[in-house]
């Protein structure tokens, strides 16, 4: 296009080369750490209950009291939500690169600090853990808008979706690694410090050394983040931010000349002509041009995360309910960690990880809209297929596991990936990080609803089978029906999300246009699919 800056044209037309893969690894390792840190908590909550809330008179091992379980599971999401809004806004104000290293260091420090949680009482230890996990979540939150925006602004237009999806796909490896680390640590401790099952010897079913297990698992999350810190600091600011937001054409051309290894002209005159009309996030103009799109990205991410996080965080409860995990009282504390980790690793290997990479492979062929709609549809189908004949699955564990894995497969080969990709493409450069942060924060609000709601809802309808300290719930069967209905709503709101495949970012948002042509171009090209 005539008005397209040469430096942005060069990025859009660039062949896939080494710097693309470097950017994927640098941004992706942040997401690896994000997923490891957020989901590793589900591996250790039952262990925390055994260690800190042991009751020698109880026939069942200790469990976290309801308010503590809710805090431990949900506090990182609260931090993540706050971090997405704050760092998303900061990424547009100060630049993507300047904020990028800060989020990573916050994650490293708080991962280590989580494992060093201390206190004079059990509640004191949990309070310290929750404090550090809130700030860990705050750092993780910043990684969402910044990683997505950086990758979308670096990528070429033909493979942009696949590159952003590849960054997000590192989440799958983070979840898988969490399970593997828990397997290794629990097996090592089980071998070194033998303990009898709870129903044989209540007092000694939890070895004193088991307190190190959860600390090691949490602290390991700092290692991959620390390894990529140097490379994050070496990345230049994205050309789209430098040219379209900072309005420094010379710097943008100089930075991308080094990255692409070609000579690029500055074209400051073009920068001065493009997008002089600056409307804010809360303006009528933004609402008219981007309001429906923002509603589409926030609502679909909110609905997706209700189903995705409730299923992911409470796998262990679902496995116990169908009898795939042995009863807690028949295992020692270390053996229980091992069994939970084994189950979650299997699910990650069979459903979670492949789903992410199917998205990477097919997103530039099927498009974002089709993959998101298809993903929500099949998640609904499999949730209902698990829920309606629920008593049947109690005696057919393998079938249940296959169906359950397929819900994760279609979450990741579906809306879990596309809700992350699309907000990084459809908003103007000066609001891109902010709008992605708002969309992601809506998702985390869904995760909080899902994780806390499922904690209460999935409790048995039979009072005798309810976990200590909990009230009766609607049961796993009805909870799965509710999640299926939530996915149906996700299909409906997907209709508000536009297709962006194969188009340049400036073409999608209308930023190429001088002000008098902007309105007409945007209204024509914003129609979905």
TrEMBL record:
Recorded topology in the membrane: Multi-pass membrane protein
InterPro entries (UniProt xref): MFS_dom (IPR020846), MFS_sugar_transport-like (IPR005828), MFS_trans_sf (IPR036259), Phos_permease (IPR004738)
Domain of life the protein comes from: Eukaryota
Domain Major facilitator superfamily (MFS) profile: 23-502
Gene Ontology CC: one annotated term: membrane
Protein location: Membrane
Gene3D superfamilies according to UniProt: MFS general substrate transporter like domains
GO BP of this protein: phosphate ion transport
Annotated transmembrane regions: 21-44, 64-87, 99-118, 162-189, 212-231, 345-363, 369-388, 400-424, 436-458, 479-497
Sorted UniProt keywords: Membrane, Phosphate transport, Symport, Transmembrane, Transmembrane helix, Transport
Membership in a protein family: Belongs to the major facilitator superfamily. Phosphate:H(+) symporter (TC 2.A.1.9) family.
Protein name: Major facilitator superfamily (MFS) profile domain-containing protein
Organism phylogeny: Eukaryota, Viridiplantae, Streptophyta, Embryophyta, Tracheophyta
